[in-house]
Design goal:
The complex is a heterodimer of chains A (about 475) and B (about 475).
Chain A: E1 2-6, H1 10-21, E2 25-30, H2 33-42, E3 46-49, H3 55-60, E4 68-71, H4 76-89, E5 94-98, H5 108-114, E6 131-133, H6 135-148, E7 156-157, E8 163-169, E9 179-180, E10 192-199, E11 202-204, E12 211-212, E13 217-223, H7 227-233, E14 243-247, H8 251-260, H9 268-276, E15 281-286, H10 289-298, E16 303-306, H11 312-317, E17 325-328, H12 333-346, E18 350-355, H13 358-366, E19 371-374, H14 375-388, E20 395-398, E21 403-409, H15 421-424, E22 430-436, E23 444-445, E24 457-463, H16 467-475
Helix pairs in contact in A: 1-14, 6-8, 6-14
Chain B: H1 2-19, H2 22-31, H3 37-55, H4 67-91, H5 98-109, H6 125-140, H7 142-149, H8 156-162, H9 177-201, H10 206-217, H11 235-248, H12 252-259, H13 263-267, H14 270-294, H15 297-312, H16 327-336, H17 352-370, E1 374-375, E2 379-380, E3 383-384, H18 389-413, H19 418-429, H20 450-464, H21 468-471, H22 476-479
Antiparallel strand pairs in B: 2-3
Helix pairs in contact in B: 1-3, 1-4, 2-3, 2-6, 3-4, 4-5, 4-8, 5-6, 5-20, 6-10, 7-9, 9-10, 9-11, 9-12, 10-11, 11-15, 14-15, 14-16, 17-18, 18-19, 18-20
Classes of the chains: A alpha/beta (about 475), B mainly alpha (about 475).
Chain lengths: ~475, ~475
Amino acid sequence: MRIVIVGAGFTGVQLAKLLINEKNQVAVIDNDENIIRHASNQLDCIVMCADGNSLDTLEEVGIAKADALVCVTSSDEINMITCSLVDAVYPDILKIARVRNYAYYVNTASAEKKHSNNFGGKRRPLYGINYMIHPDVEAADAIVQAVENGAVGNVLSFDNSEYVIARFTVEEGSVLDETALKDIRSKTDVKFLVCYVEQNGDTSLPSGGTLINAGNTLGVLLSKDDISKVLDLCGSKQKEIRKIALIGAGRIGTIIAEKLIQPQKNGLGRLLSFASKRSQDFVIIDTDDELTKAAAEKFPEARILRADASDEAFLREEGIVDFDLAICATHNHEMNMVLAAYLESLGVGQSISLVSSAAFGEIATKLGIDVPVPLRDAVVDSIMSHLRGKSVKEIHTVTNGELEVVECEITSNSKVNGKALREISNPGTFLVLMIKKSGIDTYQIVDGNTKIYAGDHVVLITEAANSKKILSHFSGSNE
Amino acid sequence: MFIITLLKITSILLAIVGATFAIPIAVAVYCGEFAVLPSFIIPMAVSFVMVIAVNLPTKKIKYNMNTRQTFLIVALVWIIASLMGSIPMYYCGAFDSYIDALFESVSGFTTTGSTVLSNVDVVPRSVNMWRCITHWLGGMGIVTLTVALLPLLGVGGFQLIKAETTGPEKGKVTARITTTAKVLWIIYTGLTLIETVALKIAGMDFIDALSHGFATLGTGGFSTRSASIGAYNSVAIDVIITVFMFLAGINFSLYFYLINRDIKEIKDNSEFKFYVGIVVFFILAVTISLVKTYGSFATALRYGSFQVVSLISTTGFATADFMDWPATTQFWLFLLFFIGGSSGSTSGGVKVVRWVILGKQVNNETKKMLHPHGVFSIRLNNKVGRKDIVFNVAAFISLYFILVVITTFVGCLGNLDLHSAFTGALSMVGNVGPGFNLLGPSANYGFLPVFVKLWYCFAMLAGRLELYTMIIFFMPSYWKK
């Protein structure tokens, strides 16, 4: 896949690195000499110092043959008009523009859903841009995702899929204790697949005969909605997140609140939920007068407080210290980390913090924050996922890199073409997890009878050392 | 040249009021009441001559008014319309003095429905019809009718209508104010006709049915019988009028939404929900308290629901004298004097929406006690309300009760007992109709001294125009150049 990136700032370079790692052809353009010099030191690809919004320049780096154009300069206008320009000449290229000014931003995905007849159909996409990326929206989405995953770290999610791989520890007295994997189906009808088992520090790919004991940690592929059910099976009750404190009522906070606040039930439903104490308690805290007022008008279901969230007296007064989850999403990212750690130290169950980059995220984890969400990486991840929609192979590593989750497309000369999984299985070396039939957009969990045909996408887990061999075995090529 | 604008607008309004004299004239001809004909025809002719005399020579002069002047126009229009309406009443001879006729006319236009007559049955049918028409004109508003019929008022029309309609938030249901006014009047007329037909089927004669149709939709309360609706002693008529009094107490914009199938707008309307809730609650409370008096639940429900809806919609019809009812019933009914119907309806009173807003503010203040750092907002109709709406409502309610207190005092000066004076004041300012004790449903206002009647006229007009339009002239800032 050929990709042209306009803008070699942090995002551009980060993106280029990932794409180069995944063996794509990348060209990076920026008009600042210093930035380009810095980028060329880090990147093994075409690097050019010129104006990205010129067709001549773009053609020079091969836009004519490119599959995608990503505009991540510091100027929203340049990003947008460059995409429009390219759209006019090369309509088939996937165009992604980053936009920081919220007034320009259109949520392309939801707009497409709403106006499905006109959008992305016969007519051109809006402004010629297939996807607009707004950092705040991406960060908010990542945070919402984290909350939906139960605010536990180490949840691996897949693009365009409801499935995740999550880690569970089997407790004493669980129904799964001392069960062989092949018998697990008789215990429950929840659809899930055990991907790997950690026993006494060893990680292994399971087979039907693998025996599960209390104390083992399982990597389980399952639908997001089933996380609590599987937790139940493992004998540990997930504490339901009911009381959420959101610190920061700015744009990110607002988007998060929009998605997380459950609509109020009316009449009887409200009474019932009140009686059973299962209703959500959502608190938004900010020091800004205008922001809190706007939030109070926007979210009648939530409790809006205007105060300094680091004021312990205030936190105790409002009972925030007993909350299940704190989300720190102010624009001061360092403050978010400190605040999240502080809130956890006071007794808040779990914490999610918006941080500026992945490096800070590691520090945040050390501070005891459950899920750090790096803003810059959220943008890169989002662009990557849009590009992957095109066909970049995705690689995830799990359990410190011992295992890899990879995705590949079956070609017609593949050795497994037309075979059922049962026939090709080789316990202990790889495990097919999910399959996406050609022409269908969603993944399914597989079983032994699933047959593989050319054109299908297969997600499998292997030992990192063997992954290349397995991949070529499946895809049929000798790459 | 504001004076010309003023003359033009008032003359047009008078001509429209004059044109409605056609209905009582037709009734008079039909019933052979030729003696009262001149008292209708002469003012009608005069108003027509005036409108031509004023408008022809000034055809080229454009309407021109500022906010200050719109208040003056609306206030004057209501006073002049009341004066004009009193002419046929005075000349028909049923009233003792001109002041009585004026009181009756103001009571009609403001949809109060308090009468000075002890025996309505002897009044000519055409004059009775005219009394009910004043309700109908005053209910939706004379200015609104003018704007609906003559789009010439243009942009200024909205200012005029705003000075006349009720409720804290005045909006338009359609883009153009003339269309809005038209839509409201068409709905209003439609409902009136439906009720007239229903009453006719239920056994009234056509003239009575139409009169009561006018009086119900305007939430007025004048009847063509001394014993009010009770005179017919018919369950069907009671039920029909109860239903239409209830409907007239709803914001008329909601009917527009209903016609447009905009059900969400109705579902989201906070005032409507509370209005229905209050009516249901009070009907139950009153009915339960009346079961002993009437012996059966059904009868208690019939009389109770009629009286509750009659008072909350500020109509003031009666099927029974609530002064004979138990004290608890009287207590519930007394509370209704404070509530009033919905904003944008033809009813008077404080209006449900104002109490809803105050209630929400009280709720917010309570929450503020629990969460000192909390930030709260008021939502109406599932939307964020205007930010200063609480202040607006608080000021209105204070002013409302100041006027009630002064009116009570005037009543006491006129030798009323406190109970009568206070409920009388609530009834006047809220355009309800009956009060308690001496001013109860079976009594009339004829015995009051002249100065009390005049003050009551002012109180009724101030209440109908939601205080500010009348009271603004007593503020020094209005007269400041």
